[in-house]
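Q: what sequence does this backbone want?
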């Protein structure tokens, strides 16, 4: 009985770790997308001014 409970907890912990890593990756990808968009627009505006 104890073995079943332990494996169940380990599975839940693994799922939570995988989910948090994926959410962090999505969050980082979103930040990179926003930063690159602003950088591109800034370079475009500077190019148009010059």
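A:
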């Amino acid at each position: 009985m104890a073995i079943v409970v332990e494996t169940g907890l380990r599975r839940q912990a693994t799922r939570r770790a995988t989910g948090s890593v994926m959410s962090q990756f999505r969050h980082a990808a979103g930040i990179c997308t926003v930063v690159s968009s602003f950088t591109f627009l800034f370079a475009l505006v500077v190019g148009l001014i010059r």
